[in-house]
Amino acid sequence: MAGEAARYSAPATSSCSLVRVCLAQDGRLKASFSDNSVLLLTASGSAFVHCSPGAAGSNEQQVFRQLSRYAIRAYAPKLAVAVQFRNMHVDVPFLLTPGASTSQQQQHQGSNGLTLGYKLDELWWPADAAHALQPAPGASPPLAQLLPDGSLAVSACDGMARATLQPNRRRFAVCYPLRTTPLPSGPPYQHAWHTQVFSVDCYPERWHPLVELLLDLAERLAGPDADATDPAGQPPEHSAAAEQAQGWPLLDAPAARQDGQEQPQPAYRGAEPRGERGALAGQGAAVSRVARA
Looking at the domain covering 5-87, what would its CATH class be? Predict the structure, then answer.
């Protein structure tokens, strides 16, 4: 995967900006910056090498190697940009700070984590398109919606995750709570909102049920009469996910904070998390086991 920097729109560091990123299939990453420096990440993201031009008139490069979580201040901004891009395109992310958020949007919102009170290892998706298009109990809208720009969005059965398929049906993004290493003085189970983006032709096996669901929904909703309405025939509500669909790869978290209010906890559809497994299984819900950072 190369040349994603333009679409990624990464924030500039204090003295330079990201120019180009190359991500290998095994997770290794090479990031080039506007000051002619290069940062190389190992496959796990836990260590890096920074190469910069030497003194004027010298052909030698200045090479610096260090563990990512102990990066000195001079290289921290570049490392943060490189790790952030890597985390959105690999199966298992690497957090520079345990318990911190992995997405740029959460940094903008000022929220660095999510406390659920229990560990979340699985996401429950509608079993098929028919279940996703059915209105939820309590007059709630269906879990699947067609957004104004043609993107297809679907929420997990318990409201804990949200996925969006691009209008061209080639790439999808999924936002979900990633379980992180708990802080010494924090709750035993800490999660952080995390967004991942993959091609529908190449993605981690854990997202197979989700991709099958998205493609099934796209096929059902496609046709000459398809328009920018949700499956119930009503215009979908305005959402930040629709705005971000063109900008990729960032998505709003399912329970994103608004207007400076405190971060709300995710809204569940039905019973409490621990008690709803049986009900979801009875509906034939598909399961994705999520990674842990």
Answer: alpha beta
For 31-35, 51-55, 282-286, which range has the lowest pLDDT when averaged over its residues? 282-286
pLDDT digits (tens, 9 = 90+) for 86-132: 999 999 999 887 655 454 434 433 345 677 778 888 899 998 998 89
Residue 102, both tokens: 């992995």
Q: In three state form, how does the secondary structure of the chain look?
A: CECCHHHHCCCCCCCCCEEEEEECCCCCEEEEECCCCEEEECCCCCEEEEEEECCCCCCCEEEEEEEHHHCCCCCHHHHHHHHHHHHCCCCCCCCCCCCCCCCHHHHHHCCCCEECCCCCCEEEECCCHHHHHCCECCCECCCEEECCCCCEEEECCCCCCEEEECCCCCEEEEEEEEEECCCCCCCCCEEEEEEEEEECCECCHHHHHHHHHHHHHHHHHCCCCCCCCCCCCCCCCCCHHHHHCCCCCCCCCCCCCCCCCCCCCCCCCCCCHHHCHHHHHHCCCEEEECCEC
pTM over the 0.70 mark = yes
> Domain extents for the chain?
5-87, 107-289
Q: Highest-confidence range of 186-190, 267-271, 272-276, 282-286, by mean pLDDT?
A: 186-190
